Amino acid sequence: MKKIALVTGTSSGIGLSTALALAKAGFTVVATMRNLDKAGALQQAAQAQGLALELQQMDVQDQASVSACVQRVIQTHGQIDVLVNNAGSGFLGAMEETGIGDLQQVMDVNFYGVWRVTQAVFPHMRAAGAGRILSVSSVGGLIGQPFNDAYCAAKFAVEGFMESLAPVAQRFGIKIALIEPGPVHSEFVASVQEKVHSQANQLEAYAAMRAAYLEGAAQAFASIGQSPDQIAQLIVDAATTAGMHLRYPSSEVMRGLISRKYVDPNGDSILSLNGARLPATCGG
Predict the structure, then answer these.
(1) pLDDT per residue over 162-179, tens digit each?
(2) Does the pLDDT of residue 191 top 70, yes or no?
(3) 156 domain residue, yes or no
(4) DSSP state of 172
(5) Would the pTM of this model clear 0.70, i.e. be above it?
(6) What does the alpha-carbon distance between residue 111 and residue 92 come to, in Å, rounded to a whole number?
(7) How are strands ordered across the β-sheet holding 131-136?
(8) Which residues contact 212 (CB under 8 A, 6 or more apart)?
């Protein structure tokens, strides 16, 4: 019997690539997205590769939508073997420029959404005595990034949630993993960059630092950026390996950054690392 994989946020980027990669690996994939009108790219890619996918509507910000989708999958397939929490939303801006509404939106998609879907799926995995929950985090879930205050807060929350849940889940036969990409070339990134350039409430005091950060980020994407397909393969590995780890950094560069934090109990080296990406003075 084929294993059932439920993947959130599959209209583009990592989610789209993951749905295809899991289908190639032999899973029956239930690919979800908030707006099924945006399923064209996924459907075309699946058709071109001769893959069958089941599309379902799910808005991770809507409890009723999450519950209804999970129930449909259980009624149709009787089980969910792998959950991939991928749906996410980025935000780039200084803390002073970030309204509570912006913060709530970022937290709702990136953290509360993960909580809602995990909470809906978990009882079924617990009853089955097996399952895997893979959540797409970020290097920004382990190391704070300038001008990513809201986004990093949400991803830090995901890391804490999953790290706390993992030993409890393990007692029920459920394995937990965090997928931790660095820079990834995707529509997600393009959307964030478009938003930051169109923000109307940017403060001049941050202009020089923001420009320096964006320039450095562009260089990072050019030099170490990965493709959604590379992250998708990492997710397939975590979904299928016998000895699954808690954390899956997406590259040796990310592994090096993470190991730097974990051997630095006072945090000074991370503060220095991030500070080196900004001008020495605020310029205002």
Answers:
(1) 999 999 999 999 999 999
(2) no
(3) yes
(4) T
(5) yes
(6) 17
(7) 54-57, 28-33, 4-7, 82-85, 131-136, 174-180, 247-249
(8) 277, 278, 279
Please identify which of the residues 112, 151, 206, 213 carries the catalytic annotation: 151
Report pLDDT for 175: 96
User: Which residue range forms the structural domain that includes residue 60?
Assistant: 4-275
Cβ proximity of 31 and 23 under 8 Å: no
Q: Which residue has the tokens 């950026």?
A: 225
Rounded to an integer, what distance in angstroms lies between the CA atom of residue 213 and that of residue 282?
Answer: 12
Q: What token pair was written down for 190?
A: 């393009």
Strand pairing partners for 180? Answer: 249
Phi, psi of 2 (to 5 degrees): -70, 145
Distance CA 100, CA 176 (A): 31
Residue 103 lies in a domain: yes
Q: What pLDDT digit, counting tens, does each position of 33-51 carry?
A: 999 999 999 999 999 999 9
Token pair, residue 154, equals: 């949400």
Give the separation between CA 135 and CA 158, rounded to whole angstroms. 8
Residue 151 is a catalytic residue: yes
pLDDT single digits (tens) 80-95: 999 999 999 999 999 9
In a domain, 271, yes or no: yes
